[in-house]
Specification:
Number of strands of chain A: 2
Largest sheet of chain B: 3 strands, antiparallel
Number of helices of chain A: 11
Helix content of chain B: 10-25%
Strand order of the largest sheet of chain B: 2-3-5
Strand content of chain A: under 5%
Order of helices and strands of chain B: HHEHEEHEEHH
Largest interface: A-C, 27 and 26 residues
Oligomer: heterotrimer
Chains: A mainly alpha (about 350), B alpha+beta (about 170), C mainly alpha (about 160)
Shape of chain B: elongated
């Protein structure tokens, strides 16, 4: 079986991949700036405002600082795994963006260019897979440091991520029951024609939201790190850019979860009255990308807003919330969704 | 015991109702509070560009004054040192020699005049005690220093510039 | 040699090398990591067969959940070569003989087996979610339900043991 190689297709995909990667890195970079600004504003401060106008060059300064810091690898650490930990964290953080539809199709020189890297029909499962693989970055880094506190933090992180994967998956199952498709593109197109899924799945959205906080290790669930009361977390022994990779991966994860929430529950690149505006083609696509980014930025802001409002959970509270509240709630949500679908199709006589 | 204010609230130890156990309304309330702070006026002063305004009665670093002819007013009477509750002021007096009339107003002057700014409590009693209007308190505060001895201010730190010399230097 | 042949060869090489790594490496954590690599390579084979659902479920369940638990336990136990108990000699021979016997059976079975799926080409649509779901809930509904009962009982068992 021979494949004929479509060079335009490959170039198109390569360009798209670099664009998506570049955008996620830039957004993650400026999320660090945004985080500090939002934190400052909530605490009645001004935030970074010295490096460049409004402190906009601050992320560059921070990155430069991290690059020039001394690279320390503990002598008792497993060197290979010690370096692999942050690399894996970064790698898995970037993987998810492959299945997200960043926009509708663009028409460039007669070619229909889809703004989605891979429209596989298991898109949402792919995300669950990447979330599951994300644990390895934390665990390997924590173990390879050969420090008991890192190891304990890695265990905290891994159990937290595994525990919250379950309600997240169950919440997503209720979503599939409505959409009938696992492809993210289909899900967005359905919301474009119908209503946003957050209206059909409010409980599911709430569960997904809480779980994404836990999966990205953000406050109130940032127990793997818990810098003030437990210890520095699984990256306790890390310094320089390897530490930067871990922190950066967290921000990329935050960006990707924000995009996911916007895509799955808030219509992705679709916005209300999109098809009644009387414009079509490329401009509509560009507007759609803008809408997606607007929603994403709101969720990124929401992540920060919550971080500077709600204090951290205790570990047993975290586990209790995951296993005893969210999972039963997600199951109940599934049951209700199933009943509702049956009722909609058959009425009372089923 | 009777409370001084009526703001104290007894702790509510009733078991939580279902709505309270959901925590979501409480979380929403907290988020509302932080959102309000987002738009509040910022408390920070952008320091080098703008400085915090002092009140008109602010008492800052001391200065030693000169008269209109540029002569030092201080006569080393020691009243400021006596008035000082923190005992931050020391001085040594010296007699004015002939030919130094353009430097010192009185026949006796302070050869050495020191204020320890770490001891000083900026009460302003020295300013009040001075019979010659030689000590005034300005509107700045002592800048940071690496050593304690840097906070012992001598005459050269506190004496205001000679008005005519200043003009000459500016003209050059 | 087509592109898929090259990918197949590379994936197989990775899978076999990492599988050897699992049994040859001294450090148990390295073994687990090799096993994860092996799983990922095998998942690549599923993609080649157009079995997307199997691919992703394989990664979620095996690499994402089961191997994490393995790693968890191994990291906490801190197994080292010097605290490992000395194995008896006859145990080694017994292991080698039983492993060899299994290999023999596998080779014999594979030699006689006809492989219609491979002759049919890798482009079946049965691995896609929709077709797989329909097949599972029509032709294979009894085994599917039986296995779910098994899972349920395992779950209840886990809860009961956890309660103790």
């Amino acid at each position: 079986m021979e494949f004929t190689i479509d060079w335009y297709f490959i170039i198109e995909k390569l360009l798209l991949i670099s664009a998506v990667l570049g955008i996620s890195l830039v957004v993650a970079m400026y999320s660090t700036w945004g985080e500090r600004k939002v934190a400052a504003w909530i605490q009645d401060r001004r935030g970074p405002n010295r490096a460049g106008p409004f402190g906009l060059l601050q992320p560059l300064a921070d990155g430069g600082k991290l690059f020039f810091k001394e690279e320390i690898i503990p002598s008792s650490a497993n060197r290979f795994l010690f370096i692999m930990g942050p690399s894996l964290a970064m790698f898995t953080a970037c993987l998810t963006s492959a299945v997200i539809p960043w926009g509708d199709t663009l028409t460039i020189a007669g070619r229909e260019v889809s703004l989605q890297i891979a429209d596989i029909n298991i898109g949402v499962l792919w995300i669950m897979m990447v979330v599951g693989m994300g644990v390895y970055g934390i665990m390997i880094g924590g173990w390879a440091s050969n420090n008991k506190f890192s190891l304990l933090a890695a265990c905290r992180g891994a159990s937290q991520v595994i525990s919250y994967e379950l309600p997240m998956g169950l919440a997503l199952i209720a979503l599939f029951m409505i959409s009938g498709s696992l492809s993210l593109k289909d899900i967005v197109e359905q919301q474009r024609e119908g209503v946003w899924f957050v209206l059909l799945q409010p409980i599911g959205f709430l569960i997904f939201l809480i779980c994404s906080f836990a999966e990205t290790n953000r406050t109130p669930f940032d127990l793997p790190e818990a810098e003030n009361e437990l210890n520095g977390g699984y990256h306790l022994e890390y310094s320089s850019m390897k530490l930067g990779f871990y922190l950066f991966a967290e921000y990329i994860n935050m960006f990707i979860s924000s995009v996911l929430m916007a895509t799955l529950y808030f219509g992705g690149y679709a916005f209300p009255f999109m098809d009644k505006l009387g414009i079509d083609g490329n401009w509509l696509t560009v507007l759609g990308i803008g809408a997606l980014f607007l929603k994403t930025l709101f969720f990124i802001f929401f992540f920060m807003w919550v971080r500077w409002t709600i204090p951290r959970f205790r570990y047993d509270q975290l586990m209790k919330l995951g296993w005893k509240v969210l999972i039963p709630l997600a199951l109940l949500n599934m049951l209700i969704t199933g009943a509702w679908i049956l009722f909609r199709e058959n009425g009372f006589n089923f | 015991m009777q409370s001084l204010t009526n703001r104290a609230k007894p702790v509510d130890r009733r078991p939580m109702t279902f709505a309270e156990k959901l925590y979501l309304p409480a979380i929403a309330k907290g988020m509302g509070i932080t959102l309000k702070h987002l738009f509040k006026k910022k408390a920070t002063v952008n320091y080098p560009e703008e400085t915090r305004p002092f009140s008109p009665v602010f008492r800052g670093l001391h200065i030693l004054n000169r008269d209109e002819m540029g002569r030092e007013r201080c006569t080393a009477c020691g009243l400021c040192a006596v008035a000082c509750p923190a005992e931050a002021i020391t001085m040594e007096a010296a007699e004015r020699l002939p030919g130094e009339e353009h430097l010192y107003r009185e026949e006796k002057y302070a050869a050495r005049y020191e204020i320890n700014m770490l001891r000083c409590i900026f009460c302003g009693f020295c300013e009040e005690a001075c019979p010659k209007q030689a000590v005034y308190m300005s509107e700045t505060f002592a800048p940071a220093n690496y050593q304690r001895k840097g906070f012992i201010y001598g005459k050269e730190d506190m004496l205001i510039p000679h008005p005519q010399k200043q003009i000459k230097e500016n003209n050059q | 040699m087509g592109i898929d042949m090259i990918i197949f060869t590379v994936l197989s090489a990775i899978a076999i090398a990492s599988a050897l790594g699992v049994i040859l490496s001294k450090n148990p954590v390295n073994s687990v990591l090799c096993m994860i690599t092996c799983f990922v390579a095998i998942a690549g084979h599923y993609i080649m067969l157009n079995a997307q659902f199997l691919f992703v479920v394989h990664l979620i369940v095996y690499t994402g959940a089961i191997m994490v638990l393995f790693l968890f336990v191994l990291m906490m136990m801190n197994l080292n070569a010097d605290i490992e108990p000395q194995k008896r000699n006859w145990l080694k021979y017994a292991g080698a003989i039983s492993g060899g016997a299994l290999l023999l059976v596998l080779v014999a079975a594979l030699r006689d087996a006809s492989l219609p799926a491979i002759q049919g080409g890798g482009n079946t649509e049965i691995g896609l979610v929709q077709n797989l779901g329909k097949t599972l809930f029509t032709s294979y509904v009894v085994p599917f339900e039986l296995s779910s009962v098994l899972f349920l009982s395992a779950m209840i068992g886990a809860v009961v043991i956890g309660k103790k």
